[in-house]
Write a structure and sequence with these properties.
By secondary structure, this protein is α/β, with parallel strands linked by helices. The chain contains 33 helices and 43 strands.
């Protein structure tokens, strides 16, 4: 079956979505009918409304009900005629018979509303059946907890039928005929159930999911007779979690002193695994409870609350899972699924069999709302397996699969006391995750909804880097406690910012959480920025902040913690660096509004001889601004490299291809050009134990030959045979130069990378509604014992390509233009630029590119102060981190630019840099990037430019100011550009720029982009 976006987006429903339909019927409005005195006492003395709201907030329950007071029957009936109520509480003072009369009148209206009688004492109404007008009677002692319990009990009765059938919600049956004991027991039970459910369900998940899953707490159903209790058990028998019963209550219309004992005995005979609790104010009934067997609680005991709580925790499965030996002695306990899994690995076989026989595992999972897993475990016993060891493996497998499944696509709150280190995505602190983390969290969720992806590529393991996100609360706390807010407005060098931030105190609460995390995580870590605006759709601050990699391999935990804190401080410090400040000014964003989240990701890669790095890393874009040959823009483009992707996003020498046409490599039409443009260096993380703690986290730049003996180079490289003058798609030929063309991957598909990128980008683009850019990394292994690993690292939207305004470049424009290009980025017609800053071609030296960048930065600052945008012209790849490939300007060096022209140079032959952060920010800001490579139809008139009036001149850079603004026209449909001077200024003779030596100027190999030649 073909893998299409439509198929991909048929996602597995979120497991939480089914919870939305639970507890559908709510008590939102309560009609309380009482005397004026009771109304006053409740409102003024008990503050009943406030206490109900407080109770709901304290228990994290949603939508507390609204109370409406009525002082008498006539007023109550008038309210019922005007409004809708879900519960009616009658609270008479002395005239109980009047309350019953009102109850009957309400029932005659057939509104289907439960009517509860709330009295100050337990009353007996001879000759009256409460069922005629009263559904239940309770005793009021001034405790607002009872009101909350009555509301929840009414809601349980309303929703139990649907909720048990749809999801399998558990039920606790309480059989008690005394209103006084019901009034005492219900608040205890509901408070314990709600609190304990909060403690155990979905441990580690986020607050939204906790609130949703609260709807899955067990329901409490009340019965007052033997027959009612037995009917409830028979009706809900598959869902009964436990039964609590008094001893003496009516059976067959008469008070029976053995009704409770007989009921529990009948239930035990039917279902041996249901926990039972017998309650009595006669201590001698404890012996009868043992005969059932059932737990026993003395209703007159001062420890009644603690006894009931112990039953809920120990017997109903809400506490820790306690492994016990044959004599009942505790062996171990587990408070989470991860801890339970760890215990199962080493638990004695006889203990495992004992708990399985008594369905202890399934009960514990039922309490945690893991209904599907509990239902699978419940019927299992050692008889279903050939040996206890196979039973262990079976239970372990089911628990592990469920644990891994439930965390996918979820941003879980980090709990330092009990967390599962295999969780995909943790969050520390409140506030925003930041732009980068938002994209990554969306990516986690998206991949979790594409089961067909794994089905299509069974030979590939799809993995996401385990991630810990530090929300903006950490940054806010750090800035506030050290009074660093002023750094946002101060114009100081980056080094001074880093020094000030490095000396600042670190929040203790965050330090403690990070220390807990590092106790179980020893993997190399990438500490990455995630500012509020980073990777946003229209103002993406891509690549402007720091990413720090730490080896995290020191034997001392405190040393590793200090390295982690130092790395986080460096990321936070980059918030106040010059480049992001310049970018903020360009997009009119207040720098003091920026906040920094932090991502701590486990690095994708392997240890190769003391150096850690992936076999492949890269950037893929679903839209290709510079297609070549039969490629189409929507075919996308990918840039890949050996080692870490820093060399890709910094604009180094890498390999580019279209995922739809992976065998076409525009930069390698000849052997000579393949050798010249192929990657020769790569980045890796040194794992050597240098002096500790480290302060320099720089990646190591190494030659690719160093990756051959112990690294993955043989899995991605080809071999150049000088004697034959050709390149072979293998690295098995000894003593010959290696060429990184990734032929084993792109041609022979040891990893079907091109196909995977097509599929994932199609899904991501469809989901985000615009072209996307993503970063990825891959691990490769020799042989077939281990699957190759494909891991997505980051997802960001590219600038949305809305319907383009039509820009027409006429023949007259072409004739008058001093610059013509067939490879231009953007779609614009600008008429407000009259300044040109250019690098003199006659004095250009590739050794001086750093100096040239500094000269441009000085001119840029002056033009920014004057509010004047300008055209920037020069050779090579702009914004590269490699000074030998172009001019390494940073954003603060060119933040006032309106358009950039990249001209050809014999000294610089580089590839387009679509995957770089520089390129991404150009797209975001609408800066036109114009390449003049020298192919037919392109030109740049240097004579005309050098004839203009010079405003200032440095050693390598010239600033000219035209008398009138030029016109910059870029047609986004054709990628053509013409820059036309004003008529008054005139233009000199046309100069056709010849191809640079070695260039393919015929059009057969030119793809264009930020480079002097498509080759």
């Amino acid at each position: 079956m073909p893998f299409t976006p439509a198929l991909q987006l048929v996602a597995q429903d979120s497991e939480f979505r089914k919870f939305h339909d639970l507890m559908a019927r709510k008590v939102q409005n309560i009609l309380l009918v009482s005397t004026a005195y009771d109304a006053w006492v409740m409102e003024e003395d008990c503050k009943l409304s406030e206490r109900i709201v407080s109770e709901y907030q304290g228990l994290n329950l949603s939508r507390p009900p609204r109370l409406t007071w009525a002082s008498g029957a006539d007023e109550a009936l008038a309210f019922l005629a005007e409004r809708t109520f879900e519960l009616i509480i009658l609270m008479p003072q002395l005239a109980e018979r009047e309350a019953l009369t009102l109850g009957r009148r309400i029932k005659e209206l057939n509104l289907g509303i439960p009517v509860y009688l709330l009295t100050h004492r337990e009353v007996f109404l001879p000759g009256e059946s409460p069922a005629e007008g009263i559904d239940r009677q309770f005793v009021w002692t001034g405790n607002a907890d009872l009101l909350v319990a009555l509301v929840k009990n009414a809601e349980d009765a309303m929703n139990v039928d649907f909720d048990t059938r749809s999801v399998g919600i558990r039920v606790i049956i309480v059989v008690e005929d005394s209103p006084r004991y019901q009034s005492c027991l219900l608040p205890i039970l509901y408070r314990e159930l709600v609190v304990q459910t909060q403690e155990v369900i979905r441990q580690g998940l986020n607050q939204e999911h906790r609130l949703l899953t609260m709807r899955c707490r067990p329901k409490i159903l009340l019965a007052g007779t033997f027959e009612d209790g037995l009917d409830l058990f028979r009706k809900f028998e598959p869902y009964v979690l436990g039964v609590i019963s008094d001893v003496r209550y009516p059976r067959a219309g008469r008070l029976d002193p053995s009704a409770g004992v007989d009921l529990l005995a009948a239930i035990k005979a039917q279902r041996f695994d249901i926990p039972l609790l017998l309650m009595s104010n006669e201590p001698e009934n404890a012996r009868r409870a043992q005969d059932i067997p059932a737990n026993f609680v003395d209703k007159n005991s001062p420890t009644l609350l603690a006894d009931v709580r112990r039953f809920v925790l120990d017997r109903l499965g809400f506490g820790d899972f306690v492994f016990r030996d044959a004599d009942g002695g505790e062996i171990a306990r587990a408070g989470s699924m991860f801890a339970l899994e760890e215990c199962l690995k080493t638990m004695p076989a006889d203990v495992l069999v004992h708990h399985s026989r008594h369905n202890d595992f399934s009960r514990w999972f039922f309490a945690r709302t893991e209904f599907e897993l509990a239902d699978r475990l419940r019927p299992m016993s050692e008889k279903d397996f050939a040996s206890p060891e196979l039973l262990r493996q079976g239970v372990l497998k089911m628990v592990r699969m469920r644990r891994e499944q439930r965390q996918k696509g979820i941003v879980a709150n980090f709990n330092p006391k009990d967390f599962d280190p295999t969780t995909d995505f943790f969050k520390i602190g409140e506030g925003s995750l930041g732009g980068k983390a938002r994209g990554l969290a969306f990516l986690f969720s998206l991949l979790n909804r594409i089961p067909a992806l794994q089905d299509k590529y069974p030979g590939v393991e799809f993995a996401m880097p385990k991630t810990l996100a530090i929300a903006t609360e950490g940054f806010d706390s750090f800035v506030k406690m050290n009074d660093l807010k002023g750094l946002a407005e101060m114009d100081i060098p980056d080094e001074e910012v880093l020094q000030a931030v490095g000396k600042a105190r670190f929040p203790r609460w965050l330090r403690n959480q990070l220390k807990a995390y590092l106790t179980q995580v020893r993997h190399p870590l990438a500490v990455r920025s995630s500012s509020l605006l980073e990777d946003a759709q229209f103002q993406a601050y891509a690549g402007l902040y720091s990413t720090i990699m730490v080896p995290n391999n020191h034997p001392d935990l405190d040393t590793r913690l200090e390295e982690m804190i130092l790395a986080i401080k460096q990321v936070w410090a980059s918030t106040f660096y010059q480049a992001p400040k310049a970018f903020s000014r360009r997009v009119s964003q207040r720098t003091d509004e920026e906040k920094m989240g932090v991502l701590v990701q486990q690095v994708i890669g392997e240890d190769y001889g003391g150096y850690f790095y992936p076999a492949i890393s890269g950037v893929a874009q679903s839209y290709n601004y510079y297609p070549f040959g039969r490629m189409k823009p929507e075919d996308g483009v990918a840039t890949i490299a050996l080692g870490f992707g820093k060399i890709v996003v910094d604009g180094g020498q890498t390999l580019r291809f279209s995922p739809r046409h992976p065998n076409i490599l525009p930069q390698c039409p000849t052997v000579e050009l393949a050798l010249r443009t192929a990657q020769t260096e790569f980045y890796s993380l040194s794992l050597e134990r240098w002096p500790w703690p480290r302060t320099d986290f720089s990646l190591v730049r190494r030659n690719i030959v160093e990756a051959e003996a112990t690294g993955p180079l043989p899995l991605v490289a080809s071999t150049f045979l000088p004697e034959e003058g050709r390149i072979r798609d293998t690295a098995s030929i000894p003593d010959r130069p290696r060429v990184l063309l990734f032929a084993p991957v792109l041609k022979h598909k040891i990893l079907p990378l091109a196909e995977i990128l097509q599929d994932v980008m199609a899904v991501a683009e469809s989901a985000m509604g615009c072209p996307v850019e993503m970063e990825f990394a891959c691990n490769l292994y020799p042989g077939k014992e281990r699957k190759p690993v494909f891991s997505l690292l980051q997802l960001r939207p590219m600038s949305a390509r809305a319907d383009l305004n039509r820009v027409t470049i006429s023949e007259e424009d072409r004739a008058r233009a001093f610059c013509l290009s067939t490879h231009a980025l953007g779609n614009a017609e600008k008429m407000d630029v009259e300044d040109i800053v250019y690098v003199r071609p006659s004095g250009f030296e590739v050794e001086k590119t750093v100096q040239i960048a500094a000269e441009i930065g000085r001119i840029n600052a002056l033009l920014m102060d004057a509010g004047r945008k300008y055209l920037l012209v020069g050779p090579g790849r702009w914004g590269t981190a490699d000074r030998w490939l172009g001019i390494p300007v940073a954003w603060n060096d060119i933040c006032g630019v309106a358009a950039i022209v990249e001209t050809a140079s014999a000294q610089l032959r580089v590839e387009p840099s679509q995957g770089s952060h520089f390129f991404h920010n150009i797209t975001t800001l609408g800066i036109n990037y114009i390449m003049v490579s020298g192919k037919d139809g392109e030109r740049f008139d240097w004579d005309w430019l050098e004839a203009q009036e010079v405003s200032s001149m440095d050693e390598h850079v010239v600033h000219v100011r035209l008398r009138k603004p030029m016109r910059i026209k870029v047609d986004g449909r054709t990628s053509h550009c013409a820059i036309i001077p004003d008529d008054e200024g005139g233009r000199g003779r046309e100069i056709i720029v010849p191809p640079a030596p070695g260039c393919c100027a015929t059009g057969s190999g030119a793809q264009g982009g930020p480079g002097p030649c498509a080759l």
